[in-house]
């Protein structure tokens, strides 16, 4: 049901095709984040028009609400969401452990490391003062941010949830560490993640005729020996593809190093997914190093605050709330073919944001995702035509 084929390569940048039971994904590809079974404010029809190829949902969030029992009863995630295309479910390891790390290090928000945490705002407090997260060899106990109820995730349990949700691609449960964790903790968490990976694989293969795919996750923080050990270990297991998770360090340089250490050890014939990257500059850097898929909440989250992606702008973004756009009759981006730019002016979109109209969020999200999908289309074409380095130079000299 799954096959991954490399169609072209320019240095380490790869263009390929990942065939799934719900259609093919042309890579490298951006993966839209639909944590709760929806990409905020958009319908699946909107996403199809934008050119979206694949959505990542989250087992942790969907387990807490509405629950895998209900989604299974409703015919599985595809039917529940009305989505025909490929779906991934993240395990929620990142979400669970980001709560713990924030608490443990006395940090409310570790924005650049655990960006997802922002979405929960102030809800992540245990009213009884109990620890939010407690990990042991068997699994992890955590408190629901919705109602304070207690839950436990195990590697086997997450496979079972993934089966019942019914996404095409499932991610294993991992223990995610932050850059604030020291070497010894990061090493212990990585080793536990490896043992959990073996248990997840065993549970996954208990269903012999699976139509789903399972991705292993490389951990090891920003420590060279740990990253390499983790990449080698996870690469050795019979996963259908590999995800790179956890802390990528605290600077761009560290992130590039972590990717270089990791990607050189992963089997070239299988897809590689980087969890949590989506800025334009970063996209060129990760594709250059051989990443095939990446997801990030940034483009949709930015859209909701009026930050819109524009190629000619500094850091590829404008804030539409800025007064200079008050009477600007131009579209968000000249030449953009998205629904928003074909129908509306900057002045109108600014007005919607100022008036706090819900349409503002929808129109802004359409543009930001279209911008990224269009960029990914250009990147894929450039790799196939051996001019990716040229395209990267053309874009990055503007920022
Ligand atoms: Zn547009």
Strand order of the largest sheet: 4-5-6-10-11-12-13-14
Q: What Rg is obtained from the alpha carbons, in whole angstroms?
A: 21 Å
Mean of residue pLDDT? 91
- Helix-residue proportion: 25-40%
Strand content: 15-25%
The biggest sheet, with number of strands, parallel, antiparallel or mixed sense and barrel status, is:
8 strands, parallel, barrel
- Which residue ranges are poorly predicted, with pLDDT under 50 across at least 5 consecutive positions? 107-126
Report the structural category: alpha/beta
What ions, cofactors and ligands are bound? zinc ion
> How many DSSP H or I helices?
15
Number of strands: 16
**How far apart, in Å, are the first and last alpha carbons?**
41 Å
| Net shape | globular
Q: How would you sum up this structure in a few lines?
A:
With 399 residues, the protein is α/β, with parallel strands linked by helices. It contains 15 helices and 16 strands. The termini are far apart.
Question: What does this protein look like?
Answer:
The longest helix is centred in the last third of the chain and has 27 residues, at 358-384. The strands form four sheets. Strands 4-5-6-10-11-12-13-14 form an eight-stranded parallel β-barrel, surrounded by five helices. Strands 1-2-3 form a three-stranded antiparallel β-sheet. It has a three-stranded antiparallel β-sheet with strand order 7-8-9. By secondary structure, the chain is of the alpha/beta class. The chain is 40% helix and 18% strand. The structure holds zinc ion.
């Amino acid at each position: 049901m799954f096959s991954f084929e490399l169609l072209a390569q320019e240095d380490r940048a790869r263009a390929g095709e990942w065939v799934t039971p719900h259609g093919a994904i042309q890579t490298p590809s951006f993966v839209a984040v639909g944590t709760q079974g929806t990409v905020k404010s958009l319908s699946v029809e909107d996403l199809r028009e934008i050119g979206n190829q694949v959505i990542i949902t989250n087992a942790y969030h969907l387990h807490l609400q509405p629950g895998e029992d209900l989604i299974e009863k409703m015919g599985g995630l595809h039917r529940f969401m009305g989505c025909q295309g490929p779906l991934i479910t993240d395990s929620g390891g990142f979400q669970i452990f980001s709560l713990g790390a924030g608490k443990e290090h006395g940090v409310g928000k570790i924005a650049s490391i655990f960006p997802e945490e922002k979405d929960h705002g102030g809800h992540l407090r245990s009213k009884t003062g109990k620890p939010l997260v407690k990990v042991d060899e068997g699994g992890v106990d955590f408190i629901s941010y919705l109602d304070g109820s207690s839950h436990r995730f195990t590697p086997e349990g997450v496979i079972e949830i993934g089966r019942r949700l019914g996404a095409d691609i499932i991610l294993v449960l991992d223990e995610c560490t932050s850059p604030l964790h020291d070497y010894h903790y990061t090493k212990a968490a990585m080793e536990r993640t490896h043992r959990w990976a073996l248990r997840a694989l065993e549970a996954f293969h208990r269903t012999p005729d699976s139509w789903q795919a399972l991705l292993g996750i490389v951990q090891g923080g920003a420590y060279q020996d740990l990253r390499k050990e983790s990449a080698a270990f996870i690469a050795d297991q019979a996963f259908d593809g590999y995800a790179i998770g956890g802390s990528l360090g605290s600077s761009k340089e560290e992130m590039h190093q972590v990717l270089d250490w990791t990607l050189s050890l992963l089997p070239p014939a299988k897809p590689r997914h980087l969890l949590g990257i989506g800025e334009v500059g970063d996209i060129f850097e990760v594709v250059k190093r051989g990443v095939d898929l990446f997801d990030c909440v940034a483009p949709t989250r930015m859209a909701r605050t009026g930050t819109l992606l524009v190629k000619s702008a500094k850091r590829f973004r404008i804030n539409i709330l800025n007064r200079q756009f008050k009477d600007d009759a131009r579209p968000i981006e000249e030449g953009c073919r998205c629904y928003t730019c074909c129908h509306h002016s900057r002045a109108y979109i600014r007005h919607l944001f100022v008036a706090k109209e819900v349409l503002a969020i929808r129109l802004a999200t359409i543009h930001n995702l279209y911008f990224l999908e269009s960029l990914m289309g250009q990147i894929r074409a450039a790799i196939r035509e051996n001019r990716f380095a040229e395209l990267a130079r053309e874009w990055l000299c503007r920022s």
